[in-house]
Amino acid sequence: MARPLTRTGPEHRRVVLAAMAGTTIEWYDFFIYAISAGLVFSTQYFAALGEDALILSFATVGISFFFRPVGAVIAGHLGDRIGRRAMLVLTLLLMGVSTVLIGLVPSAAAIGVTAPVALVLLRIVQGLSAGGEWGGAALLAVEHAPADRRGLFGAFPQIGVPVGLLLANGVLALVAALTTPAQFLAWGWRIPFLLSAVLIVAGLVIRSRVAESPVFEEVRRTRSQAGLPLVQLFRHHWRLVVLGAIVFAANNAVGYMTTGGYVQSYAVRTLHLERSTVLAAVMISAVAWLVSTLAGGWLADRIGRLRVYRIGFVVQLLWLVPFFALLDTANVGLLIVALLLFSVGLGFTYGPQAALYAEMYPARVRYSGAAISYALGAVLGGAFAPTIAEALQSSTGTVYAVCAYLAGMTLLGLIATAALRDHRGIPLDVSGEPAATPLPAERNPGGAA
After folding, report:
1. What is the signed CA dihedral for 83, 309, 400, 326, rounded to 10 degrees?
2. Which positions make up the signal peptide (predicted)?
3. To which H or E segment does residue 46 belong?
4. CB of 66 within 8 A of CB of 76?
5. 226-283: per-residue pLDDT in tens?
6. Is 426 in contact with 125 (CB distance < 8 Å)?
7. What is the mean pLDDT of the chain?
8. What does the DSSP 8-state code read for residue 185?
9. Taking a C-beta distance cutoff of 8 angstroms, is the pair 61, 124 a contact?
10. What 3 state SS string does 118-181 have?
11. Tens digits of residue pLDDT in 64-98
12. Contact, 154 vs 354, CB < 8 A?
């Protein structure tokens, strides 16, 4: 009798902890840069550009996104050939080292043009790491999960993003509160980058103790690895790659208003709110995002992945105008309310993602498919979302131009969900073929609890 492809009890807990811990650390590192781009880098590294300094600073956030697909291709190929766990360790190490080095780069006033060049190169390394990280973490969680709990298990690597945002904003807020504005700009902002060294060690210890995905073990045991996963993926499943990317782009563009630093920058520079106050408000919203992401994953196991996405996109669309109206009041209480409800739509369009992507692709190309859909969606949605938002607001004089841009992206995501099919509960081992045999949304899939 074939052995089961899911584990139970303590192993489940170790897997979800490893998936969540690793993505938390990865995204803490990523968000520290994105937030600092709006608060610090324009003056420390791009001040010579005058009025364009902030836009270029945000653009460096986007540059790394073009290297996410490269990281996804490399990690996807190796993840489909040699396993998920090795890639998780490698990507975590790459992200940590590059983050610590960013904290050590002197300002442009000290070493001239070498400073922004070094900053951009290290940001590119962050992009390579982020491109390969998510697919492995998502698959490790989902491929260990019982069939009827994949949405919930897959939500744990997803909550690494709001937890990373919470941690990044929390550390920056603490440093900002303990330093004067001049001290924060001179050296205080470097502390969160250097702290990444401690987090990386903890993450590597946790991930090294987790077993390989049972689905990949089955693939390896039956010698079912694809020789060239990327070729097979685009030959047979390119449409799924495109649709998956559009769905994520719609979430990512809206999410990067806070994770990319646009809201923080707008609130501090234009509305003249205190930096530490704004960071604290974003931390509160990150908690709401965490809860709604878990709720989205849990609900996806009950009503289907795509139904939860559609609910989330509708909420996201309806809240955009009220969100910017409340933001423009420059009232801290209303800012918190705006961010809290903003987070609900984000969670429902993010929580089911790991399960949706894992069930879209056959086991032999699953890492490549999930990672590349995710990376391309990040490029299309999040890469230059803060830059576009800043440019639209500056050129029109109103944040409602930003609102229109985000509404358009949300509608695209909603349309893309209509072209996808729900594969909830389909076998994830080598016998399954998600692209060919979808499970009706109303069916209640079996599986060990």
Report:
1. -100
2. none
3. none
4. no
5. 567 788 888 888 999 999 999 999 999 999 888 777 898 899 889 999 888 888 898 8
6. no
7. 84
8. I
9. no
10. HHHHHHHHHHHHHHHHHHHHHHHHHHHCCHHHHHHHHHHHHHHHHHHHHHHHHHHHHHHHHCCH
11. 888 988 988 888 878 777 777 778 788 888 888 99
12. yes
Integer Cα distance of 219 and 332 in angstroms? 53
pLDDT-derived band of residue 225, with 50, 70 and 90 as boundaries?
low
Q: For residues 305 and 300, give the distance between their C-alpha atoms in angstroms, rounded to a whole number.
A: 5
Question: Which bin fits 447, alpha (ψ -120 to 50), beta or left (φ > 0)?
Answer: left
Report CA 51 to chain centroid distance, whole Å: 30
Distance CA 227, CA 299 (A): 37
Token pair belonging to 425: 């509960």
CA–CA gap between residue 388 and residue 404 (Å, rounded): 12
- 24's tokens: 């938390």
According to the model, what pLDDT value does residue 297 have? 96
Cα 160 from chain centroid (whole Å): 8
Residues 6+ apart with CB under 8 A from 116: 45, 46, 60, 108
Buried b (16+ CB within 10 A) or exposed e, 419-432: ebebbbbbbbbbeb
- Cα pseudo-dihedral 350, 18, 287, 295, rounded to 10: 50
Query: How distant, in Å, are the alpha carbons of 26, 111, 133, 176 from that of 63?
Result: 17, 22, 18, 27
Written as six digits, the tokens of 39 are 């608060």
Q: How many CB atoms lie within 10 A of CB 213?
A: 27
CA distances from 170 to 263, 280, 281, 282 (A): 16, 7, 10, 9
Specify the length of the chain in residues.
Answer: 449
Domains of the chain: 11-209+227-419 (1.20.1250.20)
Q: Would you say 297 and 351 are in contact if contact means Cβ atoms under 8 Å apart?
A: yes
Measured at the CA of 426, the angle between CA 23 and CA 419, to 5 degrees, comes to 80
Quickly list DSSP for 254-322.
HHHHHHTSHHHHIIIIIS---HHHHHHHHHHHHHHHHHHHHHHHHHHHHH-HHHHHHHHHHHHHHHHHH
Task: Output DSSP code: residue 443.
Answer: -
- Taking the C-alpha atoms of residue 271 and residue 362, their distance in angstroms, rounded to an integer, is 49
Tell me the C-alpha distance between 12 and 35, whole Å.
33
Q: Is 38 helix (H, G, I), strand (E, B) or coil?
A: helix
